């Protein structure tokens, strides 16, 4: 017995653009391209379907917004496979930039600062963004200038590989800056 309100739905799969094939094509006339890529001519859909059946292939609408629509005689299964393969390759080439965070206190020792600086430099060289947060506890919030100096020191020490994306600002009891790698900004411009 099935309970109300619960259904078993499949997760949506990333869809590719749907092309009309064979009898789904609604236009009266179409421009037909054969499986070798040569233009055959403008003809009614039934005639184009006959040519596709003679070649044991499908008639696929590849440019539905053209006037008249462009249809190609091809193997539809192979066409879909190539589309999926291209979409997979495009997804593989995308790079995801993560924001990695380093938290420090306003009374940080020099050795601890150098240790945290190494982390920030490693994040920037790997292409990620680095968020540096100064965490104020209790009455330390009165000495915001100490936090400001530490953040400025982080900016100076990472100038060669990174640049400031967002200037120091207060978020509750935290003062934060965001640094980004210089190489990624240059890549976006190209």
Structure in words:
The protein has 190 residues and is α/β, with parallel strands linked by helices. The chain has 2 domains: 22-91, Roll (Ubiquitin-like (UB roll)), CATH 3.10.20.80; 99-189, 2-Layer Sandwich (Translation Initiation Factor IF3), CATH 3.30.110.10. 35% of the residues lie in helices and 28% in strands. The chain has helices at residues 45-54, 76-93, 110-125, 144-157, 182-189; strands at 29-33, 39-44, 58-63, 70-74, 99-104, 129-135, 162-171, 174-181. It has a 4-stranded mixed sheet. Residues 184-190 have low confidence and may be disordered.
Spell out the key features of this protein.
5 helices, 190 residues, alpha/beta, 2 domains, Ubiquitin-like (UB roll), Translation Initiation Factor IF3, 4-stranded mixed sheet, 8 strands, disordered C terminus
